[in-house]
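Here is the promised in-class demo. Please do not try to memorize the tokens; focus on the logic of going from shape to residues.
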């Protein structure tokens, strides 16, 4: 599959908004009136699905991308890749931990494969950008493809080699291929943030354009309602 080269650096010029928190005592001020209620799914129902974990910048954007993909049942925003226990948004977003903003993807392997999710991951962000994605800078926004077993690791590494052999990107891929350890679910107000906050400046200027670029290049991967 040919992955289109997106003008990611243009995102910097669009807005000064950022996924990073402002110097405020509480993050609740970031959340507008909830227009979309987060649907709680019974954990037992999710047990029948497989999981995949990725980090590729602000998790608001990444969650929205994977939720648009057919075969994906649920996506949670959270933190992974570090060693600190029970990190908070403020700690991660200010670079006070070794975690990255990440997503937990529950998917039906009969409808979408792990290989296809890896394609979605690489095709929806810039894997050549070190510790940065769009206007967000810092190791907490680095690119990581997590694997839970040797088979998943091979899928990721083989796909990286394929991308490199086809010269899809002008710069070297810097994505970390990392064994999955623990995922810490983010605070509730981060879940479905794009749906809940359509008028947020970051969502309008960064997240939605990123999602739309993905949709344009992966039409066959989309849920019917995402078209």
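The designed amino acids, position by position:
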């Amino acid at each position: 599959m040919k992955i289109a080269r997106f003008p990611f650096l243009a995102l910097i010029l669009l807005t000064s908004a950022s996924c990073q928190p402002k110097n405020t005592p509480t993050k609740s001020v970031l959340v507008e009136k909830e227009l979309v209620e987060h649907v709680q799914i019974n954990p037992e129902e999710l047990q029948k699905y497989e999981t995949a974990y990725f980090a590729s910048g602000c998790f608001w954007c990444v969650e929205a991308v994977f939720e648009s993909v057919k075969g994906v049942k649920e996506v949670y925003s959270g933190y992974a890749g570090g060693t600190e226990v029970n990190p908070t948004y403020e700690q991660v977003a200010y670079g006070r931990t070794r975690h990255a903003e990440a997503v937990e993807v529950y998917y039906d392997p009969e409808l979408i494969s792990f290989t296809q999710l890896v394609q979605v991951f690489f095709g929806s962000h810039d894997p050549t950008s070190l510790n940065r994605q769009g206007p967000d800078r810092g190791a907490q926004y680095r690119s990581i493809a997590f694997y839970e077993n040797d088979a998943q690791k091979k899928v990721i590494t083989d796909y990286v080699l394929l991308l490199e052999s086809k010269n899809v990107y002008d710069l070297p891929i810097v994505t970390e291929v990392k064994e999955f350890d623990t995922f810490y679910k983010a605070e509730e107000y981060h879940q479905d943030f794009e749906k809940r906050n359509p008028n947020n400046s970051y969502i309008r200027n960064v997240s939605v354009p990123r999602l739309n670029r993905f949709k344009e290049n992966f039409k066959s991967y989309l849920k019917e309602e995402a078209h």
